[in-house]
Design a protein that fits this description.
Blueprint: H1 2-6, H2 13-65, H3 68-78, E1 83-86, H4 99-112, E2 119-122, E3 130-135, E4 141-146, H5 157-193, H6 209-255, H7 261-288, E5 295-298, H8 299-312, E6 317-319, E7 326-329, H9 331-349, E8 352-358, E9 364-369, H10 396-399, H11 404-414, E10 417-423, E11 429-435
Parallel strand pairs: 6-8
Antiparallel strand pairs: 1-4, 2-3, 3-4, 5-7, 8-9, 9-11, 10-11
Helix pairs in contact: 2-4, 2-5, 6-7, 7-11, 9-11
């Protein structure tokens, strides 16, 4: 049980099926070989007992008719692989009790029982060994020294043929398992490539009927999701367009009103409504994916430009170090993500520090740190949900719309990047953007 508990199944379906097939074939091959050899040995023993019965009877009859002085010269000619003749009383021993020896002793006794009285006894040896004793017609004792053979030797080429046959079966097993699991790998790869832009690779609708049906279903699912998302973006865009017109008219009417507290509050509410509509459309478009093609971006130039813009606006934003690398990314989407993260750092911490480091494979990790209060550990992932705000007040100037981080996460995923948040040990929050690969076209 302890050894079984240490056994772990391979993780991939290909490895599991290959292991099951290979072990099953090996066991079946071993069982088939054992059955064949067992049946072969049994048939060989049956043939050999009949052969020994006839040959021994003929040899004893020949020795009985030869002159005594010529018998010794004939003994080597009458010897066989499993027995030989000895002119003498032989060796005493115990009764024959081995199964194979009993069969051959009975065969010799049956062949000579009509002409001679035969006694048999086993000889103490490492293998089966017995002697049959009889007396020729002239009174000369004769001993048949017998070493029973349970089987005939295997051919030299047989092990090589068995190995070649097993290798052929293993090769066929590998091919069958690969053909069976390849559609699953293609489906998993296509599902992984299906990002927010909904431009994943389409599966070839070919092969066996089950595989073709699964490919058609997956392609149809991609088309339906893309259609539903496009319709949602169109609806939000239409709502945004329809809302912006009355909001603009209301702002114009507010502008001609007398200044006062109520007028300022109304103007602020209209501004928040306009920002909320714009952020909602932006989030919907980020879900639908970016149409911007990826290209090589000088990361230092992009970060310097971003920092200069905030510095010119009087914001406390600094760049810790340069990395001197170019990454594959969507420039506008990357700038939008970094801008939103810097805005959050300024809003809640008053300052922002940007630090970039290069990784193996041409990627980069960009960290944006602030000196704010941070986020409770339990909410570090929740804040990426749309419209979620830690700020519980109704004032959106402090809590925002709750879409900024959701937009950042969606745009990061469209670039095959990952965005995570973590609290700093000395206080404050750190946003980590990892550009790990080449974005999908």
């Amino acid at each position: 049980m302890r050894m079984f508990s240490r056994w772990h199944w391979p993780r991939s379906l290909f490895a599991r099926l290959a292991l099951i097939f290979c072990v099953g074939l090996a066991l079946a091959q071993a069982l088939s070989f054992w059955l064949t050899v067992t049946e072969r040995d049994e048939a060989t023993v049956n043939v050999m007992t009949g052969y020994v019965e006839r040959e021994v009877a003929s040899s004893v009859a020949l020795l009985d008719h030869l002159p005594p002085d010529e018998r010794a010269r004939w003994l080597p000619r009458l010897a066989r692989r499993s027995y030989e003749f000895i002119l003498g009383p032989g060796e005493p021993g115990t009764p024959v009790d081995a199964r194979l020896s009993e069969r051959f002793a009975r065969s010799i006794t049956d062949g000579l029982s009509r002409t001679h009285t035969v006694t048999t006894n086993a000889i103490a040896d490492s293998s089966e060994h017995f002697q049959a004793h009889l007396t020729l017609t002239d009174g000369t004792p004769l001993t048949i020294d017998f070493h029973p053979m349970s089987s005939i030797p295997l051919s030299r080429w047989l092990p090589l043929m068995l190995i070649a046959q097993f290798a052929l079966l293993i090769g066929c097993c590998w091919l069958v398992v690969r053909l069976a699991t390849r559609p699953l790998n293609q489906l998993a790869r296509a599902a992984d490539l299906l990002g927010p832009d909904l431009k994943g690779a389409r599966l070839p609708e070919a092969g066996p009927s089950e595989v073709a049906r699964a490919a058609r279903a997956f392609n149809a699912m991609q088309d339906r999701i893309a259609m539903y998302t496009a319709e949602r973006v169109q609806i939000l865009a239409a709502i945004s367009h329809d809302l912006q017109t009355p909001i603009t008219r209301m702002r114009l009417r507010v502008d001609v009103m007398d200044d006062g507290d109520e007028t300022d509050k109304l103007r602020q509410d209209l501004l928040e409504m306009e920002n909320l509509v714009k952020e909602g459309v932006t989030y919907a478009r980020s879900l639908h994916g970016a149409n911007e093609p990826p290209c090589r971006v000088d990361l230092d130039a992009l970060l310097d430009s971003l920092v200069y813009d905030y510095t010119d606006a009087g914001k406390d934003v600094t760049l810790a170090q340069h990395v001197a690398i170019a990454v594959m990314a969507r420039p506008r989407a990357l700038r939008r993500v970094l801008g939103n993260l810097v805005d959050n750092a300024l809003k809640f911490g008053g300052s922002a520090t940007i630090e970039a480091t290069s990784t193996k494979g041409g990627g980069a990790i960009i960290c944006i740190r602030d000196e704010g209060p941070g986020i409770p550990e339990a909410l570090l992932e929740t804040v990426f949900e749309p419209f979620y705000r830690i700020e519980t007040s109704r004032n959106r100037s402090t809590g925002g719309t709750g879409l900024g981080l959701a937009i950042c996460r969606q745009l990061a995923q469209s670039m095959d990047a990952t965005l995570t948040l973590r609290n700093r040990s000395g206080g404050g929050l750190e946003a980590v953007l990892a550009l790990t690969g080449t974005p999908r076209e």
